Amino acid sequence: MHAGVKRGVPLCGVLALLLIGCAPMPPSKLREVAQVRNAFSADEARAMLGKGKGTIKGSALIRQSGGGIVTCAGLEVSLIPQTAYAKERIKLIYGDREGGYADVERAEALNLAPGLPEFIQLTRKTVCDAQGFFQFDEVGPGRWYVATSVIWRVGYDKQGGHLATRVEVVSDEVHQIVLTPHAL
Fold first, then answer.
1. Which of 75, 79, 85 is nearest to 54 (CA)?
2. What whole-number distance in Å separates Cα of residue 165 and Cα of residue 44?
3. What three-state secondary structure class fits 160?
4. E-strand stretches of the chain
5. Rounded CA separation 164/18 (Å)
């Protein structure tokens, strides 16, 4: 060995590391992560989650291009207190503070930071039954978001999307809603 050459990483290994370092980043890594700028008010959400006399019940479904209907059967439904944080998050996902529909492609392309743990904890959850129906009882007065997904697979591809709408509960009313891309 020559006096000036040390043993270690072979030259081809150094070149490989340099090339990897120069490789273009995948598009998902280049996008800025969308952040909710409003602070989350746990006290506001907690106050809304107290027991009330309202009921929100409904279903969620999407009609496939071939005419079949897919529901939210077995999937989670969230009842989210409408705080400033929730309004901004809903707008980032659906493009509107009232809610809406985000198909799978849009939702996967959206580089949204995960929800704060306390925001997620202060959300009521249920699961759609086998027919795609859900119900929240003892809902307190206030403005709420109801959000769920209707997603299925065709081969390896996911289809469908995420649905949300805003509901205002005043007292002991029963609100019947249908979450579908065409009704939102």
1. 79
2. 20
3. strand
4. 54-63, 69-71, 76-81, 99-103, 124-127, 133-139, 142-154, 157-169, 174-179
5. 46
Checking 50-53 for CB contacts under 8 A at 24+ apart, the result is 50/140, 51/138, 51/140, 52/138, 52/139, 52/140, 52/141, 52/169, 52/171, 52/172, 53/138, 53/139, 53/171, 53/172
Asked if 40 and 118 count as a contact pair (C-beta separation under 8 A), the reply is: yes
CA angle 173, 177, 180 (to 5 degrees): 170
pLDDT bin (cut points 50, 70, 90) of residue 19 is: very low
d(CA 62, CA 81): 25
- Check pLDDT > 60 for residue 169: yes
Amino acid at site 95:
G
Segment 35-94, tens digit of pLDDT: 888 899 999 999 999 899 999 999 999 999 888 999 999 999 999 999 999 999 999 999
Angle in degrees, CA 157, 76, 163, rounded to 5: 65
Identify the CA nearest to 71 among candidates 137, 136, 128.
Answer: 128
**DSSP H or E stretch at residue 19:** helix 11-22
Helices (H), 49-115: 84-94, 104-109
